[in-house]
Amino acid sequence: MPATLLDGKHVAQLTETDLAERVAALKAKTGDRTPVLATILVGDDPASATYVKMKANACRRIGMESMAIELPASTKTNDLLREIEQLNANPDVHGILLQHPVPSHIDERAAFDMIALEKDVDGVTCLGFGRMSMGEPAYGCATPQGIMRLLEHYEIKLSGKHAVVVGRSPILGKPMAMMMLQANATVTICHSRTENLEAHIRQADVIVGAVGRPEFIQAEWIKDGAVVVDAGYHPGGVGDIEMGPLVDRVAAYTPVPGGVGPMTINTLIMQTVESGEKAFA
Ligand code: NAP
């Protein structure tokens, strides 16, 4: 059987059609109001600016408004916290995205945790993470939630499977592992201090690469029939997993690009629409 391509671009497009209808229904109900995503960009990192632009474009595609807040690189933590407080208090804003990384002098965790839970559509607060981990309602962190949605769309079974997540960052590896645990997988989390990484990966029914190093996870470590999710993206269309030799012998895999990336943005806008629907209910 040929491997299933976990086509994030396709799933994101399908979802956008549905989201556009939901936004149109909200406009009809509220006299032309839409959910609003506020994006905060601190500094002038070109990659971050591009990501923010892509998110604003996704909002536009589904007929939803966004509000761009651009702050200088010299912004202090307290200034950023005040900005977020104002957005929390603004009834016209339904979701808040703080583009990260922020400049290193800023306390990023404090900034994330200032975001009100009901507007944490990127799923970055400790409170949201804790609630999600306990199976309580909260918006999932966008990248791992996007991966879960992608696996669900292709009916990839997680229950009882051994999932190995390589990476434990607060916005990817850790929430990914907790989401897979919630879905009844048996989860191993690997990181830079893990011994015998290869031996752990060899056991994986589902492997998630979230390392940030090009093709770090070697194809020969991955068993036949595994489900392979590559969250990495590096110049030249390369991910964190050496995918080339795998495509003929695994059950399913995410392409790079076009796998995880589109699902991340799609999850962010989907969760903003949900937040808007709750606010306008
Ligand atoms: P990160 O914060 O740099 O975390 C990398 C993780 O990999 C850390 O937990 C680190 O372990 C682990 N690691 C580093 N070297 C390792 C090694 N030799 N063996 C095992 N583990 C190792 O990165 P991130 O933000 O989670 O991002 C991971 C990847 O996903 C990147 O390629 C990034 O570009 C991509 N990404 C994609 C999207 C998307 O929308 N497509 C979104 C976010 C991130 P320690 O904790 O021990 O340091």
Can you put this structure into words, describing what you see?
The chain folds into 2 domains: 31-118, Rossmann fold (3-Layer(aba) Sandwich); 142-261, Rossmann fold (3-Layer(aba) Sandwich), CATH 3.40.50. Helix 6 packs across helix 7 (173-182). Helix 7 (173-182) links the parallel strand 5 and strand 6 (186-190). It is an alpha/beta fold and 281 residues long. It has 9 helices and 9 strands. The model has no long low-confidence stretch (mean pLDDT 98). It has helices at residues 8-30, 46-61, 77-89, 108-114, 126-133, 142-153, 173-182, 197-202, 260-280; strands at residues 4-5, 36-42, 65-71, 95-98, 162-166, 186-190, 206-209, 227-230, 252-253. A 6-stranded parallel sheet has the order 1-9-8-7-5-6. A 3-stranded parallel sheet has the order 3-2-4, with helices on both faces. The chain is 41% helix and 14% strand. NADP nicotinamide-adenine-dinucleotide phosphate is lined by residues 143, 166-169, 171-173, 190-194, 197, 210-212, 231-233, 240, 260-261, 264.
